[in-house]
Amino acid sequence: MDYGRLSQDERDRLLKNDLSVEKVRFLEKYALHSSSDLKWYTTKNNTPARLYFSHHFVKTNGIMEILFHKYQFCFAKLKYFRANMQSYQPTKYNPAKGFIHTDMWDAEFFMHKRSKKQIDLRFLQQITELEVFLNLVEWLESLEEDNAL
Nearest Cα to 124, choosing from 63, 53, 74? Predict the structure, then answer.
């Protein structure tokens, strides 16, 4: 199919039909639009187009991988949270209600369940050294042990 011949709305609608509801919600949350070469990008706030990922990437990966790719997390973070997500709750901040539970596609924070500590995904994004991330994980796990006593 020649996706370049389709209008933006037609192409977006057609490509979104390939995806799960949560992936479509993610694309809509970040106002992503497709290109004729099947890449998803945003042009928010009158800035140059910013590429998020290819349509193939969105189709073949889960919502956690998509979210982590958006924040440019390293594989160590993905591997850790894949194995330990049961210890966390995806949340986001609502000015009227405070932190509220949400689905993974809408997450902006992870609440560590045992300690109730909120971890901002933008904070995790800034961690570029493995040792710093491992120290954070160790600290969170020590909070679990303290709360278990």
Answer: 74
For β-strands 33-34 and 50-54, DSSP reports them as: unpaired
Per-residue pLDDT reduced to its tens digit, 68-93: 999 999 999 999 999 999 999 999 99
Average pLDDT over residues 17-37: 96
Verify that 48 and 77 share a domain, yes or no: no
Domain boundary among 60, 78, 95: 60
Contacts of residue 143, Cβ cutoff 8 Å, sequence gap at least 6? 112, 114, 115, 117
pLDDT, tens digit (0-9, with 9 covering 90-100), for 89-124: 999 999 999 999 999 999 999 999 999 999 999 999
pTM summary value: 0.88
Q: Which residues constitute the domain of residue 32?
A: 8-60
Contact in structure between 99 and 91 (CB atoms under 8 Å):
yes
Token pair of 44 as six digits = 């928010």
Per DSSP, the three-state class of 112 is strand
Q: Strand, helix or coil at 13?
A: helix
